[in-house]
Design brief:
About 0% of the residues lie in helices and about 45% in strands. The protein has strands at about 5, 10-15, 20-25, 35-40, 45-50, 60, 70-75, 80-85, 90-100, 115, 120-125.
């Protein structure tokens, strides 16, 4: 059974930092794009960041560019999201996603193109 388990969420003051982790099991994702999305209550999932299988190429939503950094450790089958300069509007649930289709970067910002999802981790940024 394939599982993605996020951790690292919590409460932080505006301007602070958090590091989210996503540990995968049941399947290697070393050939897949991995992504982070977030979803506020009543809204659609929003693309945050994605990283190619080598880790050499990363993609970011404009709203987080320059503040968030996605990285991966294929030996640990784990993806990270370093979040700096957090703002209250970053408050929501963050989800890790695994593409499930090796070596495919098409439409990386579309949630529907990811086959595997974690359960989410809550981030709350106080003003």
């Amino acid at each position: 059974q394939v599982q993605l388990v996020e951790s690292g969420g919590g409460l932080v003051q505006a301007g602070g930092s958090l590091r989210l982790s996503c540990a995968a099991s049941g399947r290697t994702f070393s050939n897949d794009v991995m992504g982070w999305f977030r979803r506020a209550p009543g809204k659609e999932r929003e693309f945050v960041a994605a990283i190619t299988w080598t880790g050499h190429t990363t993609f970011y939503a404009d709203s987080v560019k320059g503040r968030f950094t996605i990285s991966r450790d294929n030996a640990r089958n784990t993806v990270y999201l370093q979040m700096n300069s957090l703002k209250p509007e970053d408050t929501t649930v963050y989800y890790c996603a695994g593409r499930g289709y090796p070596h495919d970067t098409a439409r990386y910002e579309w949630a529907d193109t990811y086959r595997y999802w974690g359960q989410g981790t809550q981030v709350f940024v106080s003003s």
